[in-house]
UniProtKB/TrEMBL annotation:
Pathway(s) of this molecule: Cofactor biosynthesis; ubiquinone biosynthesis [regulation]
Keyword ATP-binding: yes
Keywords recorded for this protein, A-Z: ATP-binding, Cell inner membrane, Cell membrane, Kinase, Membrane, Nucleotide-binding, Transferase, Transmembrane, Transmembrane helix, Ubiquinone, Ubiquinone biosynthesis
Membrane spanning stretches: 502-522, 534-553
The species this protein was found in: Acidithiobacillus concretivorus
Protein name as it appears in the record: Ubiquinone biosynthesis regulatory protein kinase UbiB
Length: 560
């Protein structure tokens, strides 16, 4: 009950912000929310107070910043989705800032002491109470452990989880409505996108998970110390609300003048940035998905990259890796038929898609791009234009590729800042070719056999018994055949829900009509029907109708 009340209050606050910035019309693409428009138009909030300035995109950005971390990060994610939103909106959302005022240092100290179970002075010989950085999820302090190791201490904001849980519940409800009542919502798989976003955001709240992400990435690049350095995690001092890691010293990649003064080779940096990205995606299938300039530094001594903030990490399954590599190679070989076929094989577009029409559409967006020199081709923009085109062919949104799109845009921007003439394809080709060679032919078969051999050793002794049982059932005509269709299952559930709503609606109508009759015929309530007064019938009939509706509804109740 308390959670429902808090969620209701939060919903009112969100509504107030939308009305304040004249953004409430974004809700009305759902027919079920149309009546809500009239209610808001009658609210004093809609015609009192100052008028917001700027166009729709600017007002949207301001509203998201006002609503807090859940919506700021949602806007940052949407800023990379040019396949869903017009460019003028994504460009404005890209300005969203995650920097907020720090919370009081005494609260940070209490959180640290509570997490570690010790007074702060027994853990750190030095602790800087002034935050070095503050964001919507956490803030960072510097300190020195008792053994002299310099550390960065990340502390999660107090009370944040409750607000984010409320916001995600509201977003989940809106996503459910969008898929239920909007064909476009179903095509875009809004629920899956929100679920993926919720998983990512909750992962950021758990600093133990962030520590594990950093540890995994550090292990992946242990053999490439000249490319990327990941600070060491000090596990003895980590919890879900506090993370203690090695303090790093580097030059932020946005400070180009400082990097030049340090003698850094910009061409080498640009190639390293691209190399790091493609190694993470195709070698490890695990990548840092928040590589904006605030999280990346350059070691002035070695020129290698240093990464921080590992709350958002991406991963790809084997199928997504395979089809992504196939698409990129086919693109640059101008094999548009293969690009179209790869989309169908991956299930990204419906199986009945006309491959020839799809190929023609892809050629129309790619050929003008390839007329440019290769070093002027933006891989990120090419993929984004592809996603925009596939919208016409009912391509379903692939949540596992959202973070990859965002990261590719960031990495390519970083690489081009250092060297505008960089040929991203020249860097990517050797890694993609090597990766695909490992996925095909005898080498790939042998690798798969070695990986699955322990599993086969466990199940092979059972195979004769299982095969004999199946053949015996088939011979006796007892082999069960189960066919499930997700679309039919959804239709069946909607029919059940409709019957429930109908039964309760009819019973409610009887009750309301009965009450109206009683009010209208108050002077004739003693009139007898079958030896019972009229007022008795007006009470019994709605009651019997309600019981009957409950009884009918029991046959249609969904048991998930």
């Amino acid at each position: 009950m308390r959670q429902s009340l808090l969620r209701f209050v939060r919903t009112l606050h969100i509504t107030r912000v939308l009305v304040r910035y004249r953004l409430d019309e974004v809700l009305y693409f759902l027919p079920i929310l149309k009546p809500y428009q009239a209610v808001l138009r009658l609210s004093p909030m809609s015609w009192l107070g100052p008028k917001p300035q700027g166009g729709f995109a600017e007002r949207l950005r301001q509203a998201l910043e006002t609503l807090g971390p859940t919506f700021i990060k949602l806007g940052q994610m949407l800023s990379t989705r040019r396949d869903l939103l017009p460019d003028y909106i994504t460009q404005e959302l890209a300005k969203l800032q995650d920097a907020v005022p720090p919370f009081p240092s005494d609260e940070a100290c209490k959180i640290i002491e509570s997490a570690l179970g010790k007074p702060i002075h027994t853990v750190f010989s030095e602790f800087n109470s002034k935050p070095a950085a503050a964001a919507s999820i956490a803030q960072v302090h510097f300190g020195v452990l008792q053994d002299g190791r310099e550390v960065a201490i990340k502390v999660r904001r107090p009370g944040l989880r409750r607000i984010i849980d409320q916001d995600l519940a509201i977003l989940g409800l809106l996503a459910d409505l969008a898929e239920r009542y909007s064909q476009e919502g179903r095509r875009l798989r809004i629920r899956a996108v929100v679920a993926e976003y919720a998983k990512t955001l909750r992962g950021e709240l758990d600093l133990l998970r962030e520590a594990a992400n950093a540890s995994q990435l550090r292990r992946n690049f242990a053999a490439d110390p000249d490319l990327l350095y990941i600070p060491e995690i000090y596990w003895d001092y980590c919890s879900s609300s506090v993370l203690v890691m090695e303090r790093i010293y580097g030059i932020p990649i946005g400070q180009l003048d400082a990097l030049r003064a340090a003698g850094i080779n910009f061409d080498q940096l640009s190639r390293r940035a691209a190399d790091i990205f493609f190694r993470q995606v195709f070698r490890d299938a695990y990548f840092h998905a928040d590589m904006h300039p605030g999280n990346i530094f350059i070691d002035p001594q070695s020129g290698r990259f240093i990464a921080v903030d590992f709350g958002i990490m991406g991963s790809l399954d084997d199928a997504s890796q395979h089809y992504l590599a196939e698409n990129m190679i086919a693109f640059f070989q101008r094999d548009y038929r293969r690009v179209a076929e790869a989309h169908v094989e991956a299930g990204w577009v419906p199986p009945d898609t006309n491959v020839q029409d799809f190929e023609t559409a892809i050629r129309a967006i790619a050929e003008p791009v390839f007329e440019k020199p290769l070093n002027e081709i933006s891989v990120a923009n090419l993929l984004l234009r592809l996603f925009q085109t596939t919208r016409a062919f009912h391509m379903q949104t692939q949540p596992q590729l959202l973070l990859l799109q965002k990261t590719l845009v960031n990495v390519e921007g970083i690489a081009r800042d250092f060297n505008p003439a960089l040929n991203m394809w020249e860097v990517a080709t050797p890694l993609l070719t090597e990766w695909l060679s490992r996925q095909r032919g005898p080498r790939a078969w042998w690798t798969e056999m070695k990986r699955h051999f322990p599993e086969w050793g466990l199940v092979l002794p059972e195979m004769p018994v299982l095969l004999h049982g199946i053949l015996r059932q088939a011979q006796q005509g007892e082999l069960p055949l189960v066919i499930r269709n997700q679309d039919l299952e959804g239709i069946r559930k909607e029919i059940r829900r409709g019957m429930l709503r109908l039964s309760f609606g009819v019973s409610g109508t009887f009750i309301v009509v009965g009450i109206g009759i009683m009010a209208a015929l108050a002077h004739k309530l003693d009139y007898a029907i079958l030896d019972l007064p009229l007022w008795v019938w007006l009470i019994l009939l709605p009651g019997f109708t309600w019981v009957g509706a409950r009884w009918i509804g029991s046959f249609f109740r969904i048991r998930d």
